[in-house]
Amino acid sequence: MLARACHVGRLALHVNRSTVGSRDTGATAGPITIQETALNYLDGTFPGKGGIEIYHQRWLPDGDPRALLLVAHGYGEHSGRYGNLVDFFVPRGFGIYALDHRGHGRSGGERVHVDSFDDYVDDLKSYSGLIRVAAADMPVYLLGHSMGVFIAVSYAARYQDELAGLILSGGGMGRRGPRPAGVKQPDLAATVSKDPAVVQAYRDDPLVFHGTPPASRRAAMADLAEAMPGRVRAVTLPVLIMAGGASPLGDGEGSQQLYDRVSSEDKTLKLYDGLMHEIFNEPERDQVFADLLAWLEADHPSP
Hints:
- By secondary structure, this protein is of the alpha/beta class.
- The protein has one domain: Alpha/Beta hydrolase fold, catalytic domain (Rossmann fold), CATH 3.40.50.
- Helices cover 31% and strands 17% of the residues.
- It has 8 helices and 9 strands.
- The chain has a 9-stranded mixed beta sheet with strand order 1-2-3-5-4-6-7-8-9, with helices on both faces.
- The longest helix is centred in the middle third of the chain and has 18 residues, at 117-134.
- The chain is globular and about 45 Å long.
């Protein structure tokens, strides 16, 4: 059950005034249909850990939101690829906040490099704090996709008292540490969707990283793999886990393992036969979003 809405004020962030009222979404599976004005769309930057500039976007409905969805995107992509999520949930009264992780999209930093996955968590904590200034009593659901699952779980393990719930898409416990040296990076574009237009948009998106990840990332991945089991066990808040059963990345099996190991008593697993890695960008996404909406509107008592 969603809490009573409260007024959302202005974020104390640097705002890109030239882009308020419009948005370059990069690759999406469909156009943004809501009218984005200065009243309900804002983008800008804030200083992340170590002073790296972190880009963010915000979409709000007309009137006070029912709740906020805070999005942690996947590896190599960016917040502009969540247009379908915005299309569905903003007209239904939800606000959406999303950032580009350091080294991704329009944020600063060496491309996809990270010293520690905790740097992503620290940036997200800074962003969440700024959101709380504008919407102190608003229920916030953290939504992590793919790599964002590991960021979201790591965040919740530390700060779950700040969250109303956790939504995890396309990630799980089946991925073990960094890829061995010499093993070829998979063609990620081929995993995202069975819709050829989505795949081509991903390939053509200049904000998506298409190169080889730096070797420096391997140590951060190894540390994350060691820490994840304990972080998953630490999560007790309501959690919804969703994945495409046809994902070549093993999302279904990994999500089942994640569901089995998370400590939350209020936990739900949704596996979608025939869907690929990006379930929000598949032709069947309306069913996925309907399931997510039903979960958001259900009664989830605090643990």
